[in-house]
Design a protein that fits this description.
Blueprint: H1 2-128, E1 142-144, E2 151-154, E3 159-162, H2 173-183
Antiparallel strand pairs: 1-2, 2-3
């Protein structure tokens, strides 16, 4: 009987421990259930927040695509406009170049005509020089050479080489050389007899 009482007492203590553990498990299960429900609620909230954010991002991306499309259209229009302006400018440059070439040709012809008229005027001045007031020599004593010196005057006391110039014309290099030879007294006399 004593053994029975010990066994009975051990059973009661085991049942009490089991009840205590069951109560503890029940508290833990309730706590776990609450945590699970909280997590599920938070997950639903997070999912809703995520879906809201995802929707906002999709709207933003769609808006940005629209803006990008509009900007690309604007850029293409500007590109076409710039190509048109470039074409117009190139045509303008070609026209200005053509006008410049024509003007250069006109000026070249004018300059050539001016030089030609100056040469003709010079020839006329050379021919008429003995009859002008500025000519200090007796025309009867002068002989026309033309090149490289216009006249030579044979006066009683001197022989003079005369070059007639008009306007701003200058002596040629050959004429300058002849002038320098005369100034340096490098003029010679040579008599040639032909039999």
């Amino acid at each position: 009987m004593f053994l029975f009482e010990i066994l009975f007492f051990t059973c009661i203590i085991s049942i009490a421990i089991l009840l205590f553990k069951l109560k503890s498990y029940k508290l833990n299960a309730d706590s776990f259930l609450k945590q699970f429900l909280n997590l599920q609620s938070q997950s639903t909230t997070d999912r809703t927040t995520y879906e809201d954010r995802e929707q906002i991002l999709h709207q933003t991306i769609s808006g940005l695509r629209g803006i990008l499309s509009e900007e690309q259209k604007i850029v293409k229009n500007k590109e076409i406009e710039l190509k048109d302006k470039e074409s117009e400018l190139l045509k303008g440059i070609a026209e200005v170049q053509k006008n410049l070439d024509e003007e250069i040709e006109t000026r070249r012809k004018t300059l050539s005509q001016k030089k030609s008229s100056e040469v003709r005027l010079g020839h006329i001045a050379e021919t008429l020089a003995p009859f002008l007031d500025q000519f200090d020599f007796d025309p009867e004593n002068c002989s026309f050479l033309g090149k490289p010196i216009d006249y030579i005057s044979f006066d009683d006391d001197a022989v003079t080489l005369i070059e007639v110039k008009s306007g701003n014309s200058q002596l040629s290099s050959k004429q300058r050389n002849i002038r320098d030879l005369v100034k340096n007294n490098k003029v010679n006399w040579k008599e040639i007899r032909i039999k």
